[in-house]
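Structure in, sequence out. Go:
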């Protein structure tokens, strides 16, 4: 009966197609821009109001839940001891940098499948069981990378083991690739997620593996896991996830790494443009629209830059020393960079978040507002844009809803969870459901 059930589930998933607005099939959604214009979520919620279900998740993971083919998929790392990650305070303390100890007991890296109707765990697949080669920061997990999915396959990457695996809808392995485990700066742990690019000429998986030993971008065949092309850059850790952008009619994969942002043609991996001169790496990802690409980064001691790059330019776009704008660089400024959440663009406005909300005119760089978020608590997961509202979940589980516009206007504040939980994962949305993951569980608001 289990075999029959697995076949039925696999066939059901095989018959479902990715549908923008219904599925949330990779990090920051199908387009990787955190936009869900047609989604419908409640106007308010709590632990008792509009909470459809709460499902405890074993182990620890900061991966975002994804929704594909009528199922929810998420990853986790399960060890023999409790490994609940700590909050933001630990990251900002220099005393914690490089101080983690490597585990001595095995960890199970798992992919879980949940039923969206009631949160029931339908299956759990252990992909790797091993003793980790490298330590991680107490605020990170061994399952921080978000999986991605096609109509019939889930692709999960565990950077700490170097394992990329493809599973069908019933959890049966199709193929796997084994890369080297990644040594990460200050033993912070890994965080770059795979990206699935859907294309009539052939789908591709883009996998960024940037660490202290090497930095390589892989373009993989989703059917087999074989490399279609690879490209190297200067080594250095990055936790960002690549973004696909159409620049002057050509599909590019834009990667943010140590000291620079570089774009490559998806078809052949050739470098198309780069912007260098940055004095730090990236924890957050870039964001793009038809007009341009926008990014900011910061770390203790860096200049914390923000850049807006216009479409249609190739080559080295690095501004000459002392210049903040060129034909390609619409504007840039220092002491303005992002924290850990990736930015979002809504119409002509660009938003960055952390413990503050900062809004710029994307065309000029004019700062519209810079306001401290309520509650005095930092947001780490990326925001969601649903209609004309921006949803931001802070690390205590409080969602702040802002009106998208040039004025700072809070439309609501709603919480789930308990004080013992930490909320660092990026939320997901599909149809009428909002999925919020904590250190302990996934909450479905509907």
């Amino acid at each position: 009966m289990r075999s029959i059930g697995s076949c039925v589930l696999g066939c059901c998933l095989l018959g479902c197609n990715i549908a923008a607005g219904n599925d949330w099939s990779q990090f920051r959604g199908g387009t990787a821009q955190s936009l869900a214009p047609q989604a419908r979520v409640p106007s308010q919620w709590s632990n008792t109001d509009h909470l459809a279900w709460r499902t405890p998740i074993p182990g620890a993971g900061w991966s975002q839940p994804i929704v594909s083919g009528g199922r929810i998929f998420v990853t986790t790392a399960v060890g023999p001891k409790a490994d609940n990650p700590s909050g933001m305070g630990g990251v900002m303390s220099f005393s914690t940098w490089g101080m983690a100890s490597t585990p001595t007991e095995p960890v199970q890296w798992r992919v879980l499948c949940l039923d969206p109707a009631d949160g029931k765990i339908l299956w759990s697949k252990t992909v790797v069981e091993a003793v980790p080669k490298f330590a991680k920061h107490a605020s990170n997990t061994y399952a921080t990378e978000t999986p991605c999915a096609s109509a019939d396959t889930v692709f999960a990457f565990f950077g700490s083991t170097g394992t990329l695996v493809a599973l069908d809808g019933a959890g049966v392995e199709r193929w796997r690739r084994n890369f080297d485990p990644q040594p990460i700066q200050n033993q912070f742990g890994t965080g770059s997620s795979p990206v699935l690019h859907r294309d009539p000429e052939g789908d591709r998986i883009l996998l960024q593996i940037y660490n202290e030993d090497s930095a390589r971008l892989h373009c993989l065949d989703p059917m087999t896991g074989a490399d279609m092309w690879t490209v190297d850059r200067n080594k250095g850790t990055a936790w960002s996830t690549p973004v696909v952008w159409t620049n002057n009619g050509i599909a590019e994969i834009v990667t943010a790494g140590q000291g620079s942002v570089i774009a490559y043609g998806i078809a052949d991996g050739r470098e198309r443009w780069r912007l260098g001169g940055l004095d730090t790496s990236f924890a957050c990802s870039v964001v793009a629209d038809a007009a341009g690409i926008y990014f900011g980064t910061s770390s203790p001691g860096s200049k914390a830059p923000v850049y807006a790059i216009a479409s249609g330019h190739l080559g080295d776009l690095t501004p000459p020393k002392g210049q903040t704008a060129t034909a390609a660089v619409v504007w840039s400024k220092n002491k303005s960079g992002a924290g850990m959440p990736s930015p979002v663009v809504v119409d002509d406005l660009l938003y960055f978040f952390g413990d503050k909300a900062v809004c710029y005119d994307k065309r000029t760089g004019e700062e519209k507002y810079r306001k401290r978020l309520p509650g005095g608590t930092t947001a780490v997961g990326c925001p969601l844009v649903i209609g004309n509202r921006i949803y931001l979940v802070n690390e205590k589980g409080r969602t702040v809803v802002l009106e998208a516009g040039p004025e700072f206007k809070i439309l609501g504040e709603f919480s789930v969870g308990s004080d013992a939980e930490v909320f660092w994962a990026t939320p997901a949305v599909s149809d009428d459901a909002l999925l919020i993951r904590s250190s302990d569980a996934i909450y479905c608001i509907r």
